[in-house]
Every structure is written in C-alpha cells, then in structure tokens.
Amino acid sequence: MNVSAWIMLGVGSLILYGGLAYCLALAAGLIGKGRKDRNTPDE
Amino acid sequence: MAEKRDQWDRRSSFILAAIGSAIGLGNVWRFPYIAQKSGGGAFLIPYFIALLTAGIPMLVLEMGLGQYMRGAAPEAFGKIRKRFEWFGWWAALLSAGIVIYYSTILAWSWNYLYHSLTLQWGGHAEDFFVRDVLHKSAGPGELGGMQIPLVLGMVLTWGFIYWILRKGISRVGKVVLFTVPIPWICLFILFIRGITLPNASEGLAYYLTPDFTRIFDPEIWLLAYGQIFFSLSLGSGVMIAYGSYLTKKPEINNSAFITALANCGTSFFAGFAVFSTLGYLAFINGVPVGEVSASGSGLAFMTYPTAISQLPAMNSFFAVIFFTMLVTLGIDSAFALQEAFTTGIIDKWGASKSTVNLAFCLTGFFISLIFTTQAGYYWQDIADHYIADFGLVIVGLVQCLIVGHLFGAGTLRKYLNSISEIRLGIWWDIMIKFFTPLVLVIILIINIKTEITKAYGDFPRWTLLAGGWGVLLGFAILGFILYRKKSAGSFGDDPS
Fold first, then answer.
1. Which of A6, B16, B141, B475 has its CA 20 to 30 A from that of B207?
2. Helix, strand counts (H, E) of chain A
3. Eight-state DSSP code of residue B245
4. What is the nearest CA distance from A33 to chain B, expressed in angstroms?
5. Are the Cβ atoms of B209 and A23 closer than 8 angstroms?
6. What span, in angstroms and rounded, lies between the C-alpha atoms of B317 and B337?
7. Chain B residues within an 8 Å CB radius of A16
C-alpha cells in the first residue's frame, strides 16, 4: 500500500474507532459529566 | 386485555438492537464497493461529512421522537398532528414491505450456509447461484415454479423472526447479545484470513488509495449521503419503534452517536476483509483487482464464494463463517423492520405481541413465496428499488419537515439535551430543518429523473407498476385504512 492509503487508513480509523471509544467511555461514565448530575424530566 | 407496554431491560440492549438493525448486508456488500469506486480513501471525506450532517442528526431525531412520544411511527406522528398518523402508517408499511423481500436474501444465505459444508458451488459460483439456487428465468414475467430449498430458507427465516418477536422486546434484548457480536467475530476471522493471503496488500491498496479529484464530483457526495441514509436504517420507522421502548430515564444523543459510529466502523472494517480476499482472487486468476471487484448479491453469492473455493486450506470452514455472518447480519435487521410495523399495530389496538407477530410472519411468509419462484430475483430487485429509492427517501424528507418545522426541532433538542450525555447545538436544528431535507430532495429529484429517462433494469413497464409504484400506492391506501380504523386504549394521548 502506498503512503496516501496508509494515511487514509489512519485518519479513518482514528475518527471511527476513536470516536466510538470516546462515546463508549462517556456512556460508561469513565469520562465527562455523569448523567446523575443532569436534570432529567423525571426528577 | 391489552398487555403492558414493554421496555428495554437496560440501555445496552437498546444500543445493541439499534446497532443490529443498522448493520446489515449493505455494510459488507455495498460500502466497500461504493468507497472503492468513489475515490477510495478520499470517499471517507464526503462519507464522514454525510454522517455528521445527516446520519447522526436523523438518527437522533428518530430515536428521540420515539422516546418522547412513546410510540412507533403511526402514534409518534399522530401525536404531532392527528392526520400525520397516516404518514406514520405508510412508513411502518414500508418497513413491513422491506422485511418481506429482505427475507429472500436470508433464504439464499441459509441455502448457502448448508452448501458451505460441501462447497457445493465448486469452481462455478456464478452458474451455481443463477442456475442451481435461483433457477433464474428470463424475466419477471416468467414466474416458473417455487424452489423448494428457498421455501425452506423462508420457513427458517420467518420461524426465527417469530420466535424472537413473540416475547417482545425482552427477547430482542437477549438475542442481540448474539446476533450483533457474531458477525463481528466472523468478520474478524475473515479479515485475518484475508490479510494473510498473497497479494492482499494489492487489494487493500485498491480499496484505500485516495483519488482526491473525485471529491469535487457531486455524484460522489450523493452516493455518500445515500449510503449513510440507507445504512443507518433511516426512514423506515425502526429507530422510532426502538426508541419508544426506552425507559423513563433514557439517553438518546450519545446512543445515536454510538450506533452510527459502530455501523460505519463495521462498514470500513468490512472493506479490509473483502478487498484483501479480492486481492488474492485477482492474484490467483492473474487479473487486475478491478476485474474481480463486485457488490451486492454478486459479491456475496458469486465472487466471494469463488474466492473461498480457491483458498489454500479450510475452505468449508471459511464458507461457513462467511454465510453465518450474512445470516446473523440479516436476521436482526429483519426483525427490527418487522418490529417497526407490529409495534404500531400493538400500540393502536392493544393486541397481543404473540398474535400480531404470528399473523405478520404467516402473511409475510406467504407473500414472500413469490420471491422463491424463478423470477423471484427480479421481483425483489424491483421492490427494493422503489421502496428504498423512493419510499424511504420520501419518509426521511417528510419526517424532517414535520419534526423540524411543525413539532419544532428546538423543542425536541432541548428535551434530548436535558437527558443526554452529549449536548446538541443549534447546528442540529439547522441540519434537520434545512440541510438534510435539501439533500433528500436532491436525491429524490435525481431518482425521479433517472426513472423517467430509463425504465429501471430494463424491466417491462407493467412489472415496475405492479411491483414498484403499485406497492407504494397500495401502502398509502392501506395506511389510510389503518389510520381511519378506531383505536383502543390510550393511543394518541398527549405524551406530556
């Protein structure tokens, strides 16, 4: 594979899998403000 | 007596079910081919922009609307304006239509799973598919007889769907614990096999080498938006129905991001498994990779089986892995589509889940028998073209306009922000109110223009009227009848 293909592979993976990892960490409460702190309509 | 409305037992069940619905056969057999033909790695630029500007905003809209209204598409739209319930039924009926012809591909996959044990197609995968599996006739007008192995495949498909849905969303939550990871495991095994084959890097280079001149071509952008739209199960009411089963303390925005990224990540990864193997196939046959590149059923039932039969070892094992992946990819998309329709029926008339799903599966099975005939391939192709390229695009467009302008994108966004881990800005309102509808209008105009210029697939006009426009019109009439029929219980009550 040439260099440009490797770059697209890296950028694509970073956005998709990095983004997914970030969202999953957020959902698991590992990062960001916990949902407990938010005002929900039920509270 | 009406049953108590189901709820997801946990958030992960909802997310897995949404991912299972979104990830289907198109992730494996459409995305890699479209990406390669549309600039290789450069296609990722319009693809990611389409994901952020249309895919995720619409996914948030559908999941959020279902949760806010606590109902499938008919009830959700009916609560905005009573007469929009008709539109909701049309969307739900499109889902019902899709699951009926989608079952055909599952029936083929079951057959291939069986034939994988002996690699029945040998070195002639194309002939085997056309002659031995489909017994394909010369055109849609020549129905011919039903193919018993395909009928058995249909029995398995509808039997599984009924078994999963008869207990409602609680069983769906358990089933997706298997049907979502299994295709990922299969894909990973095929990926490892693919990249360790001779000439795999040639195939991967073919897939990923960017051609940045292509991103100035408007057609590539429309392909990217189309791929995102269809791949995320948008416009079919599935995500509205799934969102309606969320608990009282839901989370929508981040769940939509997770679903969308998992779906697109799977598509991207599938490209490696597919193109590494195609690189090997090209090497074995001494031809350029472009000559063996294929998409759709051609890739799944002809090109890939050909590659499998030419693997150096364990051919049957990899064939079983590949077709297990197809079956598990398809089954959770199929039951999600059925759920989008049956949830509407259960919501409105309070009927038993088991009875409604049994009635639907039996009806669906008998209708789908037409796809087991020698002309079945043509009819499923026609139905897919009209329902996807016209029906779903119209639903996507109209739901953006209804929610964006009549219900109020700002109202929904503020509600969703109050319960979610990711806060959406005003950009979401702009996407839902203006940008996404504009893109969908352009796609629709192009589709209509193409339709007027040339009969789809060079099929006779009467077949397109009967299997395409007739189906869309029939669903509109049936939707109107369902809308006018008196409901039971609290259907359509104000969500607040």
1. B16
2. 2, 0
3. T
4. 8
5. no
6. 31
7. 261, 264-265, 268
Size of interface A-B (CB pairs under 8 A): 78
- What pLDDT does residue B20 have? 95
Nearest CB to B254: which of A8, A16, A26? A26
Among B384, B323, B338, CA closest to B28: B323
For residue B206, give how far its alpha carbon lies from the nearest alpha carbon of chain A (Å): 8
- The reply to whether residue A35 touches residue B208, judged by beta carbons under 8 angstroms, is no
pLDDT at A38: 52
Which residues in chain B touch residue A38, judged by CB atoms under 8 angstroms apart? 418-420
Distance CA B289, CA B283 (A): 8
User: What DSSP character marks residue B146?
Assistant: B
Q: What is the DSSP letter of B237?
A: S
User: B373 pairs with which residues across the strands?
Assistant: B146
CB distance B375 to B143 below 8 Å: yes
Per-residue confidence (pLDDT) for residue A43, from 0 to 100: 35
Which residues share a beta bridge with B60? none
Report which DSSP code applies to B4. P
Instruction: Read off the tokens for B169.
Output: 């969303």
Residue of B13, B95, B22 lying closest to B56 (CA atoms): B22
The residue count for chain A: 43
**CB within 8 Å: A4 and B41:** yes
Minimum Cα–Cα distance from A39: chain B residue = B418
The pTM of the full predicted model, rounded to 2 decimals, is 0.92
> What is the mean pLDDT of each successive set of 10 residues along chain B, which is 496 residues long?
77 94 90 84 91 95 95 95 95 95 95 94 89 92 93 97 93 94 96 94 90 87 88 92 88 96 95 92 88 82 91 93 95 95 93 94 96 95 91 94 96 94 94 95 91 89 94 96 84 62
> Which of A9, A23, A27 has the CB atom closest to B208's CB atom?
A9
Q: Which two tokens stand for residue B109?
A: 């996959």
